[in-house]
Known about the structure:
Elements: E1 2-6, H1 10-22, E2 26-30, H2 33-42, E3 47-51, H3 59-68, E4 74-79, H4 84-92, E5 97-100, H5 105-116, E6 127-129, E7 132-135, E8 140-143, E9 146-147, H6 152-163, H7 171-178, H8 189-201, E10 207-210, E11 214-217
Parallel strand pairs: 1-2, 1-3, 3-4, 4-5
Antiparallel strand pairs: 6-7, 7-8, 8-9, 10-11
Helix pairs in contact: 2-3, 6-8
Amino acid sequence: MRVLIVEDHRELAETVATGLRREGMAVDLVLDGEDALYHTSVHRYDVVVLDRDLPGISGDDVCRSLVNGGYPGRILILTAAGSLADRVAGFEYGADDYLPKPFAFDELVMRIRALARRPATAIPPTLVHGGLRVDPARRTASRDGRRLDLTPKELAVLEILLAARGTVVSAEQLLEQAWDEAADPFTQTVKVTVSRLRRKIGDPPLIETVPQAGYRIAALS
């Protein structure tokens, strides 16, 4: 899952970003509305966590711009203003959820994960394919009851492949969705991660390589 944090309070933003990365999410961080619009123009985020009170271009204007432009990611508004009128205004701009400050970090994680399960095609909270089970919220994976010791990136890649339901996911798509903007697109990162993931999942193989296209979860026989 890839998340964009838009928050002008640098200390809070960095704390939240660090916590979300520990939850296995790929996180980019910007401090103003202009940079938020730039990042969303070049990256596809599953969830944008957007502070309403930004300098320059406000969070409201960023939200309105994303919604009017048909941005596919979900938008979670953060604000110190917690009145009913403020919440209604946030939803009127097209936000998918609203969380007043101060907030509990665990609640933020829960809301982000809930929003990420609401794309055009709903993704179930637990992904199952034969004996393979992935629980994104608990950050766990197992095969035939055997716990898989996966790194956060391996778990993220497996989650993306399972959510694709047998369709091909390119290496570029995996890099875009599971890594943040600091990842080098010219490395073998995705190939190495998939290779390690295959070994940990074991036999019979469940991840297929589609030449010149990418990877997919193998159909059940």
